[in-house]
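#struct-pred
JK: can someone run the complex with flavin-adenine dinucleotide? inputs below
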Amino acid sequence: MIPAAFDYLRPSTVEDAITALSEAGDDGKVLAGGQSLLPVLRLRLAAPALLVDLGGLPQLRGARNEGHELVIGAMTTHAEVAASPLVRQHAPLLAQAAASIGDRQVRHRGTLGGSLAHADPAGDLPAVAVALDAQLVVAGPSGRRTIPAGEFGVDFFTTALAADEVLVEVRVPHLHHWGAHYEKFHRTAQAWAIVGVAAAVRRENGSIAEARVALTNMGPKAVRATGVEQALTGADATAESIAAAAARAAEDTSPPSDLSGSADYRRHLATVLTARAVRAAAGI
Ligand SMILES: Cc1cc2nc3c(=O)[nH]c(=O)nc-3n(C[C@H](O)[C@H](O)[C@H](O)COP(=O)(O)OP(=O)(O)OC[C@H]3O[C@@H](n4cnc5c(N)ncnc54)[C@H](O)[C@@H]3O)c2cc1C
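RT: done, structure tokens with the ligand placed:
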């Protein structure tokens, strides 16, 4: 289908983008890579009167280090995230997950900010941001505010962003001496995750000193597997301890049932994939 008619604006400053969104109210929508928004418009699931294209804002693109944080612009594409030497060095979990998204075309158009703002429960990057304790910087009419990744996703396709706010950058604390892995289970190479697990682990003297585990598609938004994290902390870094901790992966989750799998199947997958992700992160 052809989308409903809309006005189009391509501002050259973030401030102009925010002004346009403020004036449009609920009739305005940010356009990033268009990989999720354009299908929505074509299916006429949304009909915004104004699209504010962030494509003319190179200041929102690329990665840099600031102190102990990696700062990635919201308009950085998945392909750029996956290939960035800085991201690969300081947040390899994010680079690995970005490389697993869709196909080449999607990775070259879709953006980090777009994935987080779209908040698709099957999207890979929200769980990665949660596992990395990323901070999301949002600009609006009254300035900038920072939202922890764990509080950014609110519900199914819903975030803490207001209609006149723009996600401008993602700040990821450097994790030195941690191992990390994203384990994604999908039917075909380019399909969305049926379930995904983002794991980061710090080992110390044969034990797991700290662990962070977050789940994709196990509920309306990315969730932290806190039971698994608790069980891993202080546990021996062995396959047996990891399997015992991973058995708690589905606690407090509400996975969907759909054509790709039932909720029970997803609960089972979560335990298997968590064990794989944590073992890989721990190098076992
Ligand atoms: C065939 C196909 C396969 C895919 N496979 C996967 C997959 O395996 N894993 C995966 O995670 N994703 C997948 N995707 C989705 C892809 O990752 C998209 O890039 C992502 O969901 C949206 O990013 P975008 O830049 O295209 O955003 P857009 O489509 O432009 O925008 C999406 C939404 O976010 C809002 N938005 C975008 N940027 C901002 C911002 N900076 N501030 C505020 N609001 C903003 C928009 O208003 C819109 O509501 C796939 C997409 C396609 C088409």
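RT: quick notes.
Residues 29-37, 54, 74, 101-102, 106, 110-111, 113-115, 117-118, 120, 123-125, 161, 166-167, 192 surround flavin-adenine dinucleotide (CB under 6 Å).
Residues 188 and 270 are 18 Å apart (CA to CA).
JK: thanks, will look after standup
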